[in-house]
Amino acid sequence: MRTVIVGAGEVGTSIAKNLSSDHDVVVIDIDEDRAEQLKYDLDVMTLTGDGTTLTTLRSAEIESADLFIASTDNDRTNLVACETAKTMADPFTIARTKRVEYLRTWELTEKAFSVDFMVCSDLLTAENIVRVVGLPSAIDVDPFSGGLVQMAEFEINETSPVAGQTIAEADRFDALTFAGLFRNDKLVLAKGTTRIEAGDRAVVIGSPESVQAFASDIAPEATPDEADEVVIIGGSEIGYQTARLLEERSLSPRIIEQDPDRARYLAEELPDTLVMEHDATDTDFLARENIDEADVVVAALESDERNLLVSVLAKRLGTDRVVAVVDIGEYVTLFEEIGIDVAINPRQVMAEEITRFTRGGVAENIALLENNQAEVLELKLSDTSELIDRPIKDVAADLGANVVFGAITRNGELIAPRGDTELYTGDHIVVFSEASFVEELTTMA
Amino acid sequence: MVRIRVDWRTSLDLTGRVLLYLAVPLVVPLVVALWYGEPLAPFLVAIAASLLLGGGFRALPGDPSSLGPREAFLAVAVIWLLVAAVGAIPFVVASTGTIAHPINAMFESMSGLTTTGATTLQDFSIHDRSVLMWRQLIQWLGGLGILILATAILSELGVGGAQLMESESQTRNVNKLTPRISETARLIWGLYLGLTALAVAVYYGLNLAGLAPNMGPYNAFAHAFTSVATAGFSPEPSSVGAFAPVVQWAVVPFMIAGSTSFVLMYFAIHGDPMRLLTSEEFHFYIGTIAFFSAVVAASLVFDSTTQFSTEATVRHAVFNVASIVTTTGYASTDFTLWSAAAKHMLFVCMFLGGMVGSTTCSIKSLRWLVALKAFKRNLFTSVHPNAIRPVRLSGRSVDEATIRDIYAYLLLSIVIFFLFTILIIVDSARIGTNVSEFEAMGAAASTFLNIGPAFGAAGPFGTYDGFSTTTKTAMILLMWVGRIEIIPVLVLFTAAFWKS
Q1: Do B386 and A285 touch (CB under 8 A)?
Q2: Residue A361: pLDDT over 80
Q3: How is domain A354-444 classified at the architecture level of CATH?
């Protein structure tokens, strides 16, 4: 595979590093020094130039590229770069954006701006934060279909109410499917009559809301609910998206934002969030608003220094859990060393997502479970697919293997699969499958 | 010399156009007079006056230019005043009964145009049917705002209408149906016409079905005109109380529809009922009618002086509360005779009003709802001084400037009401009539907020004739000020309006 990456910043470098072992990677950067430096650090080819121009892309031999990744810090540069690359040749284009607006536009057709896959860093970071905040009991959580679907793996402990129940009894959530069960590291078929035992690991697929509801059901202590207080410090785009996603999971967070106009905007956009307009580094204010009693504090201010400060303040006041957004990758370990529970670096999250995606191959998105015994994968059904226009129960019977249809998304909406649901061309399906059967499944899609 | 910055010539040109068009509806009572063989002079004189005055304004020297906000304010105020003046001419020319007196005639006409429904008539039987029909029709014209009618027609002639719409409804919550104001006005006008036609059909249908012997075509039209317009005049001295209970029940939905946002009703008819059904203002509006109906019904049950059957108790409570809240002003029975509890509840209802974007008057449910929510927000922010809490209405936040406007409007309304009450008490004492404080408060609220009936002598089956000429003149002015939402008139009395 030949891959062209525009932008040799943290994200671009990280992707290049991950891909360089089995891809021929060309990295383009406008800064000569940075391009030069990268050449010595990694086994990749580097070019200096503007990745949105014809000449530069021509010298990168875009015509023979299979994959084109635009990962600069500038949204519009990335979009124009993809558009240019698509005009000149036909690589698979991946664009990194910061603004959620562009993602929403792209989602309308999934090919807008000539982008084949778009990753939005602010939203992705927020999703990560929400996962850390909302599902602390999950062993593994992965988003599918642009966040509409979530796969989560939970360990069922003895105190959990579902321990001892059959799957049919435990399966009382709308839009949630029990995909599989691991017992003593072995895959167990998830039939309605299968009894869930303590120590099992359950894999569920469904809407983020239903996964959240399931988590509060099996681990009521660890999972935050309406009564738990989540305080987000800083109304940045990440802070805003975090609050929005928490609201979707029926939590009522608080946001502290210093800028009056931004605070007003947040308050208007987030009906269930309490927005406070104040300097979050004022300890008197933090004490007055009982930040010490908050269950989780998320530091999402624009600068790392201030995030460090408020994180330390929150810890000193006695907050249980502090999650901080750290813009500079090197500081992540520093944050965690001084006692911040989780430090999340948007660029790292971004690079991981793009790498995960490029590894997927035919499947749009995959998650490996329990030493590759099983996989959860997202497939887009073509019009020649063998799976379409038939009820799911017939399809499943024909397949004759341990395949569970976890979720279907059609025109951007989630459909919980039932036995008589039919699949159509263009549907995205999220499937749980035995690892040995994955290849056969992908050829059928 | 001070330069006047308002292009009054433009305002008067528009006023002239409206007055010219006023000649058209004046033909209706003329036809009624021909039908019943009554004198034609009252309407011929009025038609001549509207044509002459309208033509005269248009023929003034100078060129009218485009309509700005100032010109729109001036035009709104002048149009309402002059249309009422022309509308009073038939009463004076007919020279029958109390309304032959110019002040009483102007009172009657202004009460009609502002859809108030307060009357100075003493003896209904001596008046011509055509004159009484004109009284009904002028309410129908005033109903949706003679201005919207005018914009629908006039904007086609290239006269700017958007600015007028803005000053007619200060609350700015009128969602436009189409980008073009003339198109919006036409759709709303069509809905108004349709509702009126439906009301005629229902009322006359009850007559044909033998359920309402005295609801002939004349009464069906007369009441359809004033129920959809939430206006309240009736050619019957005992208002809707003159008709069978089934008619009273039939009138209630039309009063309520007349006070419901026409924009939302338009959407509801055209396949999007959720916009109306999820509107918080609609919930609040229907909720107030239901709540006060229940309270009034309870106070009727516990009052030993009123002896109604169960059906009659519910009917009188619902009918009269709906009539007052929607600012119609019909009555199904003389509620002046009710217990203090029931009467005072109706008095409170006077201040409520229906939804914005309807024919209703008074303070309107949207203002109360926003004010209550803003007050609740203030309680919250007194505990959390740093919290930012937008006031939300149907999920959308209301901007702070609008909230301030609404607070100011409420305060202004209450202050004017209070001063006006004092004026009525003092003036009545001067001429030696016996008006109690409560009756004065009722009359002040009822005229200023464009309801119609009050309590005591000015009750639903009574008349405002007993008030002094001074009081009646003040009432004429305040009906005018109240109907066009106070600001367009008050602004004319500021220096800043006239100077740069």
Answers
A1: yes
A2: no
A3: 2-Layer Sandwich (3.30)
Range list of H helices, A289-437? 304-317, 331-337, 346-359, 392-399
- Contact call for residues B363 and B405 (beta carbons, < 8 A): no
* Percent helix, strand and coil across chain B, each to the nearest 5: 70, 0, 30
- For strands A296-299 and A321-325, give the pairing: parallel
Count other C-beta atoms under 10 Å from residue B82's C-beta. Answer: 20
Q: Nearest CA to CA, how far is A226 from chain B (Å)?
A: 19
Amino acid at A240: Y
**What pLDDT does B178 receive?**
56
How far is it, in rounded angstroms, from Cα B60 to Cα B99? 33
The string of pLDDT tens digits covering residues A291-321 is 888 888 999 998 899 999 999 988 888 888 8
Q: How many angstroms separate the most distant Cα atoms in chain B? A: 74
DSSP A422: B
Testing the interface with A: which of B383, B388, B403 to mutate, by most A Cβ within 10 A?
B388
Asked if the Cβ–Cβ distance from A276 to B388 is below 8 Å, we say yes
A143-162: per-residue pLDDT in tens? Answer: 787 778 888 888 888 888 88
Q: What is the per-residue pLDDT across B264-317, written as a single tens digit (0 to 9) for each? A: 888 888 888 888 888 888 999 999 999 999 999 999 998 888 788 889 999 999
Classify A15 as helix, strand or coil: helix
ipTM of the complex: 0.70
How much is the pTM? 0.79
User: What residue of A is the nearest CA neighbor of B396?
Assistant: A268
* Residue whose C-alpha is closest to residue A335's, from A354, A348, A352, A353: A348
Question: From CA A207, how far away is CA A214, in angstroms rounded?
Answer: 11
Question: CA A191 to CA A8: how far, in whole Å?
Answer: 49
Contact A113, A95 (CB under 8 A): yes
A107 or B186, higher pLDDT? A107
Closest residue by Cα to residue A353 from A107, A138, A97: A97
Mark yes or no for CB contact B389/A275 under 8 Å. yes
User: Measured in Å, how far apart are chain A's first and last C-alpha atoms?
Assistant: 23
The reply to whether residue A275 touches residue B387, judged by beta carbons under 8 angstroms, is yes
How many residues in chain A? 445
The answer to whether A289 touches A318, Cβ cutoff 8 Å, is: no
Q: What tokens appear for A340 in the block?
A: 């911040």
Contact A274 B390 (CB under 8 A): no
Question: Between 3.40.630.30, 3.40.50.300, 1.10.630.10, 3.40.50.720, what CATH number should domain A230-345 receive?
Answer: 3.40.50.720
CA atoms of A332 and A381, how far apart (whole Å): 40
Token code pair at residue B163? 């600015």
**Amino acid symbol at A260:** P
What single-letter DSSP state applies at residue A196? Answer: P
Residues of A with CB below 8 A from B383's CB? none
Shortest CA gap A256–chain B (Å): 9
User: Which 3-state string (H, E, C) describes A38-82?
Assistant: HHHHCCCEEEECCCCCHHHHHHCCHHHCCEEEECCCCHHHHHHHH
Mean pLDDT of B198-227: 92
Q: Are A287 and A306 in contact (CB under 8 A)?
A: no
- Give how many domains chain B has, as a whole number: 1
- Mark yes or no for CB contact A278/B388 under 8 Å: no
Give residue-wise pLDDT tens across range B404-423.
888 888 999 999 999 999 99
What SS3 class is residue B496? helix
Q: Which CATH code, of 3.40.50.300, 3.30.70.1450, 3.40.50.10260, 3.30.750.24, is assigned to A141-218?
A: 3.30.70.1450
For B227, the token pair is 């129920």
Distance CA B454, CA B118 (A): 8
Distance of CA A428 to the CA centre of its chain: 17
| Beta bridge mates, A254 | A231, A274
